[in-house]
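Lecture notes, unit on protein representations.

Consider one protein chain, 237 amino acids long.
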Amino acid sequence: MISSIYHILIYQPILNILVIFYKTIAFYDFGLAIVFSTIFIRILLYPIFHKSTKHSMMMQRIQPQLEKAKELHKNDKEKQLKAQMEIYREHGINPMSGMLLLFLQLPVMIALYQIFFNKLTPQVLTSLYPFVSPPGNFNTTFLGLINLEQPYILIVGLAAILQYFQGKMMLPKIEKGRKLSTAESVSRQMVYVAPLLTLMIFMRMPAAISLYWAVSVAFTIFQQKIINRQLNQNESR
């Protein structure tokens, strides 16, 4: 039942979007089809990703306040929790919404992974809508240069670099002389750990998946620039 719902509502639409782009504006270039499909899906799901990204950035910004409340009421767990919940309310944050938004994104991520990993094989193309005809000879290259069926370290490296800059953008400025909490220190270390994980995870995968991830992270950077501008404007009022 769940697998059928997933197939009809998520996997099948994404597959058809990819094929439509492949046969039209991508000019039968699988790499361009991935780029256009990723951007289209991110625009389509912009509200969800926007809320998720904004939630993560706000959690980073209020971390010093949460730590201060924790230290102030370190001998009273009930007051500590009450003070932290008040900070969440003040900034309009639901601490559980981050996990909820992550779970909403996971089915999309899984569908994209399955399609890119399996490529447009005849078995995969059986899930096309009746009005979408399957492509003839399938070109698995990007710009005629990169075989997306094989790992490609340059695309993985680009994804890792973009991941680093995206992580840096998430971090708020540190007040001079303020000691970082354990949570803040871990967050800043993750800026370096995440790109390394990207390299380790994607370096053996087909370049199609690495290309999707690089484009997705690039879109997130664009999204974070918008959110950063909004947050800075609100703080300056």
